[in-house]
Amino acid sequence: MLYRLEGIVIRSMDYGEGNKIITLCTESGGKIGVLVRGAKKPKSRHAALTQVFTHGEYVFFRNHGLGTLNQGEIIESHHLLREDIVKAAYASYACELLDRVLQDEETGSFWFKQLKACLTALNEDKDPAVIISLYEMKILQSAGYAPELTACISCGRERPDEEYFISPGLGGTLCRACKHFDPPAMSISPRALKLLRLFTMVDLQRLGSVSVRDETKLEIKKIMRAFMDQQLGLTLKSRNFLDQMDKYGF
Predict the structure, then answer these.
(1) Assessment of whether the complete model's pTM goes beyond 0.85
(2) Which residue, of 4, 29, 36, 169, is most buried by count of CB atoms within 10 Å of its CB?
(3) Number of Cβ within a 10 Å radius of residue 12
């Protein structure tokens, strides 16, 4: 069967002497693997279509399993992401995270739109730390692990004038009276809690200019990292690389 789908390359790997296999996050067909014959050859007309982060229209034959590319057209190459080590690192993390969370054939419209918006925002020089934290929140929400941030996850009461704690293990905020249910629960500043609540409501596609203090970004990063570890438990090579970049001041 011949398919024509809009998709973003989230993974690209060599296959044999001259071929590549790409993994696409498509808008209407979920996550699909496609064999691109001759993509590694110098004069290949399909080589550009196999570059990671590439957003394009892909036409391929597929009965079951792996598809075989027939033709394609680039919509946005995102070459600037590949040429900047910092942007490439964040974009790689976004793609690898989605690749690990999204199952084959799972409906991918929401995932596709969030990834597209994430790559576009990185390409437009918006703060990558904020973009990725918001993207992680969208991943948690769409995977069914959205944190409860408006009330205490234990007693259910909203306590706007009281200090909250954040419990990634229990999946949300705890009031002081309920903190004993998770002693390792982290303190959270009012500013960070307000931003996290905003993240649950804002769509990446509608994100404008955002200015966040460095200390708040670090707090948000620590909290989101804990949520991702507790709720998804994924080990990602791209995240390790991001950690190394932070260590050496990139």
Answers:
(1) yes
(2) 36
(3) 19
pLDDT for 42 equals: 82
Q: Which helix (H) or strand (E) holds 127?
A: none
| Residue range 126-152, pLDDT digits in tens | 999 999 999 999 999 988 899 999 999
Specify the DSSP class assigned to residue 51.
S
Q: For residue range 25-34, list pLDDT tens digits in order.
A: 998 888 999 9
Name which of 103, 89, 105 is nearest 53 in CA terms.
89
| The pair of three-digit structure tokens given for residue 105, joined into one six-digit string | 């054939």
For 222-231, what is each residue's pLDDT tens digit? 999 999 999 9
pLDDT per residue over 172-212, tens digit each? 999 999 999 999 999 999 999 999 999 999 888 888 777 88
Instruction: Give the per-residue SS3 of 147-172.
Output: CEEEEECCCCCCCCCCCEEEECCCCE
Residues 6+ apart with CB under 8 A from 140: 146, 147, 227, 228, 231, 232
Written as six digits, the tokens of 140 are: 């948690």
SS3 at position 103: coil
* Helical packing angle, 109-123 and 85-101, nearest 10°: 170
- On the 0-12 / 13-18 / 19+ scale of CB atoms within 10 A, 162 is exposed
What single letter denotes the amino acid at residue 17? E
Determine the residue type at 229: D
Distance of CA 174 to the CA centre of its chain: 27
Q: Which residues contact 111 (CB under 8 A, 6 or more apart)?
A: 25, 98, 101, 102, 142
Contact present, 133 and 199 (Cβ < 8 Å):
yes
Amino acid letter for position 181: F
Q: How far, in Å, CA of 190 to CA of 200, rounded?
A: 16
